[in-house]
Amino acid sequence: MHDYQREFIEFLVRSGALRFGAFTLKSGRTSPYFFNSGEFSRGEQIERLGYYYASAIQELETQPNVIFGPAYKGIPLSISAAIALNHHFEQDVAYSFDRKEEKDHGEGGWMVGHVPVEGDRIVLVDDVVTDGATKVASIENLRESTESEVTGLVIAVDRKERNSDGGNSVEALGEKTGVEVRSIITVYDILGHLPDREIDGQVPLPHEAAREIESYLGEYAI
């Protein structure tokens, strides 16, 4: 793991975005851990979050000149990542995000910010991939509505769980769309760094809780 990935794991704990216990997922499974990007609600948090996304973007094979955030959670991510790319990596990129409903007055259209043109290389940023359907729709919409190239997608956490087809949703999305998909961290990174580690005087993931996650992954993960 890179230093920024280790820092990101501890950042998630401090922000309350990564929690351990018993959580019912959308799939109906009971998970021993949960990631909730809705916990990022302060300026300091979103500024730092942008840095972690920008660090992951730096590792993509094709570097973008546009960061696109699907509404709604992707909106602050696209802006903070664009700021961080400029501030930390001297990479000035544009950002844009979509509207849930197309605007028919004023400037109109379904996109806010930079409207991609021919020659643009777009990377999407979002929090997680569940079944991948919404991300596929966003990528297809960008390809159909603009003359730009969609080259990548960066998410925060890859749970590495099997989807209904028995594969990994993140990998399946990459295969279906042809874009490079990268997560800042995976659940295995969490297990490699966090167990029994003290953060701000507490141990968020004791050994016993880590074993529960390992057991869960043994049943549901690839």
Description:
- The chain has about 220 residues and is an alpha/beta fold.
- The chain has one domain: Rossmann fold.
- It has a six-stranded mixed sheet, sandwiched between helices. Strands 1-2 form a two-stranded antiparallel sheet.
The percent range for helix content is 25-40%
Q: What radius of gyration results from the CA coordinates?
A: 18 Å
CATH class group: Alpha Beta
CATH topology title: Rossmann fold
Q: Strand tally, please?
A: 8
- Please report the number of helical segments: 7
Order of helices and strands: HEEHEHEEEHEHEHH
How does the major sheet shape up? 6 strands, mixed
Q: What is the typical, i.e. mean, pLDDT?
A: 92
General form: globular
* Main sheet: strand order: 5-4-3-6-7-8
Q: What is the CA-CA span between the terminal residues? A: 20 Å
Number of domains: 1
Please indicate the percent range of residues in DSSP E strands (runs of 2 or more).
15-25%
Q: Runs with pLDDT <50, length 5+?
A: none
- CATH architect. name: 3-Layer(aba) Sandwich
The SS-based structural class is alpha/beta
